[in-house]
Amino acid sequence: MRRTALVFDGHNDVLLRMWEAGGRSAVAAFAKGDKGHIDLPRARKGGFGGGFFAIYVPSPGDDEDGFEDMAQPSYDLPLPEPVSQADALPVVLGQAAILIEMERQGQVKICRSTADLRACFKGGRMAAIMHMEGAEAIDPDFHALDVLHAAGLRSLGPVWSRPTIWGEGVPFRFPSDGDTGGGLTEAGKNLVRACNKRHIMVDLSHMTEAGFWDVAAISDAPLVATHSNAHALCASARNLTDKQLAAITESGGMVGLNFATAFLREDGQMKADVPLETMLRHLDHLMGILGEDGVGLGSDFDGAQVPEAIGDVAGLPVLITAMRDHQYGEALVEKLCHGNWLRVLDKTWE
Ligand code: ZN
After folding, report:
1. Structural domain count of the chain
2. Which residues contact 93 (CB under 8 A, 6 or more apart)?
3. 16, 51, 171, 307: most buried by Cβ count inside 10 Å?
4. CATH number, residue 188
5. How much is the pTM?
6. CA of 33 to the centre of ligand 1 (A)
7. Greatest C-alpha distance within the chain
8. Given the DSSP bridges, would you call strands 75-76 and 173-174 parallel, antiparallel or unpaired?
9. Which residues are CB-contacts of 23 (< 8 A; sequence separation ≥ 6)?
10. Residues 224-239: tens digit of each pLDDT
11. What is the pLDDT of residues 28-48, one digit of tens each?
12. How far is the CA of 56 from the centre of ligand 1 (A)?
């Protein structure tokens, strides 16, 4: 069997899974062998060197039922109710504390610089970027943003699907473009500037098209969507049009390929029987516009249903073998698996 490649990944929901499983007390299981898509033994097997660990505040009634609602020929899930800062902040602190406990137990290193990432890749410790998916816990004066930045926050998506004071995200809707609602509010524009100033990466995945173009007009950093796919191949509201991909290219940014089956399949359905060829078609399409330096991986492990051919993090070598069989050379495989994330973060965090 051929050697695998080191994967650094744009999105996982491990922290949410542990928070739902009891918080800090759930951390020890990660080292031994855990439920879900990622734990340390399977990560080692899959060549998973780390990634963006999302802090995410669930909506009431937010569970796997959504996957069933999305296993239909078309669907339009209602936007969940807004969550207040008072309700969001304790959840965010709880999930940040889980990541800190993981670091305390030697499972991960919370990376604050690309030097930290490179040291992890060399030394074999799992690299974690503290990321926030939806910024409900942040106040308009950015006190919480400063404190979380000091705790290691280096990446933030202003919105998930819910409406917020910053703007709103797209609903889980198929077929649909991303033009489903308003753009950034004035506060949302200030949030982008505040992130730029602190060298916190702004994540465009989940934003409406209007919000996307607002960020593109304001941000001085490369444009990044950590876990999104090509709308030309799967007409989900969560995916990016060729015009959006061109804007990301122009900014020197990148897109992480989302493994969620509903954002891969041409029929938009959350069903696990997705051939690896579908993932390669998205990679080819993304690279057709973004080039070889503008594409990476953004699995959504522990947050979505992934193709049964991959299954979990231990299945990553299957995808890498498929890339090689698809005539991607070794240099390109390395860029897709981790090199491009380093390039973009070098520019964003410098
Ligand atoms: Zn997401």
Report:
1. 1
2. none
3. 51
4. 3.20.20.140
5. 0.98
6. 24
7. 54
8. antiparallel
9. 94, 97, 98
10. 999 999 999 999 999 9
11. 999 999 899 999 999 999 999
12. 9
What DSSP designation does 321 have? H
**How many angstroms does the Cα of residue 176 sit away from the middle of ligand 1?**
17
Q: Flag whether 268 is in a domain.
A: yes
The count of residues in the chain is 350
Q: 154 — phi, psi (to 5°)?
A: -130, 5
By the 10 Å C-beta count (0-12 exposed, 13-18 middle, 19+ buried), 197 is classed as: exposed
Tracing tokens 């499983």 back to the chain, one arrives at 21
Ligand 1 centroid, distance to 14 Cα (angstroms) = 12
CA 2 to centroid of ligand 1, rounded, Å: 32
The answer to whether the beta carbons of residues 321 and 281 sit under 8 Å apart is no
The reply to whether 264 falls in a domain is yes
Please report whether residue 119 resides in a domain.
yes
Please tell me the distance between residue 157's alpha carbon and the centre of ligand 1 in angstroms. 9
What mean pLDDT do residues 258-287 have?
A: 98
The answer as to whether 328 is a domain residue is yes
Alpha carbon distance 143, 28 (integer Å): 32
Q: Let me know: does 110 contact 103? Beta carbons within 8 Å.
A: yes
